[in-house]
Amino acid sequence: MTFHKLNLLSSIEPFINYEEIAKSKHKKYREVLYGTDEVKTQTYTNVKNCYELYETHKEYLERVVPFTNFNSTEKEALLHCYTGNTKAVRELRNAIIKNQNIHYTTKCAYCGIGDTNYLDHYLPKDNFPEYAVHSHNLVPCCSYCNEKKSMLFLDGDGIRKIFNPYFEEVGEEPIINCTLECLETTLKGHLIIRDDIDNQVWLNHLSTLDLIRRYQNELPRVLCTIMYDIMVVCDEVGEDFTGSKRVINRKLKEIERIQGRNSLEAIVYRAYLEVDQLFDMKYLRKVYVEMTHLLH
Known about the structure:
It is built from 11 helices and 4 strands; from the N terminus they run αααααββαββααααα. It has 296 residues and is mainly α.
């Protein structure tokens, strides 16, 4: 859910990429998608117009409707731009991923916890074949989010089902809160969406990708990582209560900078810093042993 903005490739290059990919296709598709340097096809002109429309409405993509005048041959050729796996499209995929920061070159832009192994078509390519290789329409994501989103775009009220990590802004306030409960031999965490959140796109995103449940399952892992780091700092550097808190707070700032304030780790680190008992070494060591045993 990270609600963290991805880095865009150049705003002037999407159609240039289309041209390069179209020209790299075999004659059967190239003659449909591009034509010649002297005479372009109607498909080429229509796609160019669609790209201009995308740029105009990029912050409100629910206003973009599919171009309905492509015939079956044109649609097949447009989809093959992506599925044909030419060198040009492989380079585009790699460029999109490598353009992200160190976290999002390997982690899903939709959830922040799954490994990036797909590019999702934000506007589904079967309905919007004209954007099959539009770089701003390709979102690095994990297999789970890719499958869950699939062909989804708008809900029954015409509101987007998924947050757009290229163009949407989110304020500084966290969307999900975490509370931690210190028990005798374990630590329990609870995640809840803030009750004053009324942005339906955000709520749709959380529901569609089942993020509260998935994050809840990841909580013990994140908590154990924090506890281990505190124990190491105390054992190796001799930091006290105040010093340990300072170390974890610095870590939180770095997580927020790279992953975003709404990443799972940022949510949990903020909650952890609010509980003084979690910096008591005697309690911490006991709970850590129990929790890591359960994780195995």
